[in-house]
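ingest -> validate -> predict -> emit
validate: passed (alphabet ok, no gaps, 107 aa)
predict: started
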Amino acid sequence: GKELRYRLAPNEGVFVGRSGNCGFKPPDAGIADIHCRIAFEAGKLWVQDWMSNGGTRVNGESIWTKVEIPDNAQISIGTHRLTFTKAAAAALHLNPLTAAMIARGHK
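emit:
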């Protein structure tokens, strides 16, 4: 399927869902208006389900609270799988640690 990308800067969070208020909107009818929130805080990635009907899974396990996203984890929402990469730039003062989120639809 189509690949979508979103870059999170340090101490940034984004809501994932179909709502116009969400910063990351995979095109998927199985995703709630506000499905989950993903944040990059203190050098760690976190995900929290936002009481969605379809639920949010980390490596196949349903989550109910704010959970740290382990390296190379896969987050499942609707028919999409979100994968994450963390990259440290050579010059942290100019280009700080970032996290790139990639969503792929699987139908």
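The chain is about 0% helix and 45% strand.
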